[in-house]
Amino acid sequence: MADTSGSLPTFTAEDLPERMTEADLVEQNKYTRDALERHKREGLELATKARWVALSVIAVLLPFLNPSWEMLYYHILLALMAINGWFLRRVGRVGRSSAELFCIFVDIALMTFALVFPNPFMVNDWPDPMVYRFENFLYFFVILTGGTLAFSWKTIMALGHWTVTMWLIAALLMWWLGATDPELSGALSLALTGQEAMAKLLDPNAMNFDIRAQEIVVFLICTYTLALCVRRFNRLLLSNASLERERANLSRYFSPNVVEELSRNDEPLKAIRNHNVAVLFVDIVGFTHLAADRHPQEVIKTLRRFHGRMEAEVFAHDGTLDKYLGDGLMATFGTPMAGEKDATNALSCAKAMIQAVSQYNYERVRGGEPPIKASIGVHYGPVVLGDIGANRLEYAVIGNTVNVANRLEKLTRDLEVQIVVSDHLRGQVIKESGEDSPALAGLTRHGGQAIRGLDKALAVWTV
């Protein structure tokens, strides 16, 4: 009887505030840091490209709106904003970045200057407040929406507040210092006698602060809405990174095929099943004697290196690491779901394990350490699979097949071989891959062997 078990906490994005803050996650979870860094880098790349496309569209649009050489002034400012976007891509990073904030400030300052202060090359002798008649404030939304591709929700909030502040300061400066033409206001009032409200609205010298207030309020509403969307997306990203961490932690205890099954279904292992699987046991021969005179840290180091190599071969051959057994381990092939070549994979894994041990011994001998010897037993037959337990579940692989595989591994000492496989497993390999399968190369048949737990002697094959 053997089992594998593991339980790790799970939580959703809604649970995040109760568990830890975003800053805690970023600090403690390398998966979160990596995910945020990757998202930030991709966002900056996308935001820069979107900026260049948007600025190009605006640059093409301006001559259609005003086909004159005066537009070259705005083209220069657009080019400066494009260059600033390139700097933003270079200096942007996860966390607080003074350089990034400075570039964002430059963006807003350039846009404000371009939209509010009169074009020095313009030949029209209009009052300065006339610039507000062109509804240029709409262009700030290009910067705001582009920022959502790369910036955090806090940076979006800062961008919105800075924009509103600069726009308001520029309006006050224009009201205080801007050049006006009172005669135009008088002429308009005279022409619209009896229509004072319309004359006030159309006055070329009027700042129309009610409209400016409307622009600010609408922009702030959009800012807060986009900031909330970015915050929600970032929390989903953090939650996904935490799920990735949990999946990585699961993979430290379960094989990839079990983790995949656990992640795809709500209760993937609960159903009790009975089907044939291949069971493999591997052990270090004489490890007790080898470890007797060695420092405990050296013993653990040896075990970790050995287990790491054996585990890698199990996973490489689509097996499930059932559990470690001191100086050995148990693996199954065909769990949690049966495959098309479970027996073939098990036998190939056993041979690959021997090659891995040979390579490890080469490294040990070069380092002045004695070589080790591994013994492997593999059997194929019926087992019972399913969860056992109530709240803390354990995935159990139960049956006489497990016991036989374990005793075949012990039989390697008597036969003085490294691998012993049952005739049942060899027969299944032939069914799966044919008699010419490379996995069958090098096998030698031995007559019936008495195996405790079996009524009849069992024919075995050795490597």
Describe the structure in your own words.
The chain is an alpha+beta fold and 463 residues long. The chain is built from 16 helices and nine strands. Strands 1, 2, 3, 4, 5, 6, 7, 8 and 9 form a nine-stranded mixed β-sheet that branches. Helix 3 (30-65) packs antiparallel against helix 6 (140-147). The radius of gyration is 37 Å and the shape is rod-shaped. Residues 1-20 and 22-28 have low confidence and may be disordered.
Helix/strand order: EHHHHHHHHHHHEHHEEHEEHEHEE
* Strand residue percentage: 5-15%
Helical amount among residues, as a percent range?
55-70%
Shape: rod-shaped
Q: List segments where confidence is low: pLDDT < 50 over at least 5 consecutive residues.
A: 1-20, 22-28
Q: Determine the structural class based on helices, strands and strand pairing.
A: alpha+beta
Describe, in short, the structure shown:
This protein has 463 residues and is of the alpha+beta class.
Give a topology summary.
Blueprint: E1 2-5, H1 16-19, H2 22-28, H3 30-65, H4 71-91, H5 98-116, H6 140-147, H7 153-177, H8 182-191, H9 196-202, H10 209-253, H11 256-264, E2 273-284, H12 287-292, H13 296-316, E3 320-325, E4 328-333, H14 342-366, E5 374-388, E6 394-398, H15 400-415, E7 419-422, H16 423-433, E8 444-449, E9 458-462
Parallel strand pairs: 5-7
Antiparallel strand pairs: 1-6, 2-4, 2-5, 3-4, 5-6, 7-9, 8-9
Features:
about 475 residues, nine-stranded mixed beta sheet, rod-shaped
